[in-house]
Amino acid sequence: MEYEASFLLQSLQSSFCYFFFSFALCFSIFSFLPYLVRLKAWCKCDVCRGYVTSSWSTEFDNLCDWYTHLLKNSPSRTIHIHVLGNTITANPDNVEYMLKTRFDNYPKGKPFSAILGDLLGRGIFNVDGDTWKFQRKMASLELGSVSIRSFAFEIVTSEIKHRLLPFLSSTASDEQDRVLDLQDVFQRFTFDNICRFSFGLDPGCLELSLPMSEFAMAFDLASRLCAKRALSLSPLVWKAKRLLNLGSEKKLKKAIRLINILADEVIKQRRKLGFSTHLDLLSRFMGTVNDDAYLRDIVVSFLLAGRDTVAAALTSIFWLMAKHPEVTTAILEESDRVMGPTQELATFQQLRDMHYLQATVYESMRLYPPVQFDSKFPQEDDVLPDGTVVKRGTRVTYHPYAMGRMEEVWGPDCLEFKPERWLKKGIFWPESPFKYPVFQAGFRVCLGKDLALVEIKSVMLAVIRGFEIEVDEPDNSPRFAPGLTATVSGGLPVLVRQRRRRS
Ligand code: HEM
């Protein structure tokens, strides 16, 4: 009897599932059709065939390298991938037009905010219009203040002194040479740093034992799975999986639930203990925003914006310096001149006085921008300055990775790593942000740019003045894992040795 009941129940369940799946399938096919028609999903042009069959991968290590090749060969420096409905440009005039001249016509758009919506909610990174304007104003005021800059600098120097340097010293003094993944070290460092800055919370990911913080793991997983959504042929695929709570969507839901629990806990604690005397971003925003869910969204956006970007920048800088020891030597010479040979950490003013160091950071991100491309979705049909027609609601992408490799912007030596190109008579000289949109540009330019530069330069100096970093196989070009920021598959394996004293 019991057996029959359970059998009946199972049959009912499976009929329900069958019905539900059939419904979801029909729904997907019907909703998919207009989408396919609009995309020209049947397109058989060489580029679309190359994309669909992944034949590009026989010649190129990364999709961004193939796009760069296509963009170099296009006279307008703009291409169209029909099957994706994506117009991709490396033309600085188009970039200026989208990010400044007709900014209002090029929002992030619904397809983007849907992908990150579950993780970021209404946070600044994921909204347009008035909600964005409100947060942008509030965040610009806070981030522009002298007190937050010195608070951020204090966190960076303490994290370097008490965690990064002791950790590298422990590895360097190992009897046997121990290979270390420097990318992982930087990701731990930047996560501790951005959490302390944003929440006043210290996950301690770079403690000597390299503990796996639950929060860091959930955050990693959630951003990876959101990036995976962007790779689906149609948003309907991940939306159907979300509806049915299946596979990666089930994991994403679980990871986001954990992030929410932890964030809520921090917010509650802050309210209980009083926030007016605290310097972190959350405490500052609490003065203006009363809604806890909104506060959580705002701060989680900062975590996403400020963590992997800095780790990606540091990873490529150390890889490039390993290939170009003369650059490391020049930085050491400059820092000895400004700081003397024995001072461990640079002061804020000393960082500003090191122009070659700054040039190295810019040059590295020219070739390896942490955010390789960025998409917008025009509200109205439009024509870009190079004559390309873009249709309302389709995707338009500007591509900093390809732009850093364009001869007409950077000259015939554009593929070479040469920090000197950023110096005029020894003084750092920035380029137009529309030629170098590494931090985006125009009205939505990155709000953490200055903080990021201070963090990157402080870490570079502390590490190269204290240690010799030997990269395992520096001649292998990086292969990037698909994601929101440039993460190298397999990390950056290195050997760390204490640097011998310089005379
Ligand atoms: C090398 C490091 C960094 C790079 C390359 C970088 C790059 C960018 C880019 C390309 C955007 C535009 C993204 C988009 O709209 O789709 C952006 C936005 C933003 N970044 Fe950064 N970022 C870095 C570090 C940081 C840090 C450390 C913080 C925070 C402390 C931060 C905070 C933000 C915020 C809040 C936005 C959103 C601005 C807005 O929508 O108005 N970034 N960043």
Automatic annotation (TrEMBL):
Needed cofactors:
heme
The cross-references to Pfam families, in alphabetical order and at most eight, read: p450
| InterPro entries in the record | Cyt_P450, Cyt_P450_E_grp-I, Cyt_P450_sf
Q: Which UniProt keywords apply?
A: Heme, Iron, Membrane, Metal-binding, Oxidoreductase, Transmembrane, Transmembrane helix
Q: What GO molecular function annotations does the UniProt record carry, in alphabetical order?
A: heme binding; iron ion binding; monooxygenase activity; oxidoreductase activity, acting on paired donors, with incorporation or reduction of molecular oxygen
TM ranges are 16-37
Which family would the database say this protein is a member of?
Belongs to the cytochrome P450 family.
Specify the protein name: Cytochrome P450 94C1
Q: Which organism is it from?
A: Nelumbo nucifera
Read off the lineage from the record: Eukaryota, Viridiplantae, Streptophyta, Embryophyta, Tracheophyta
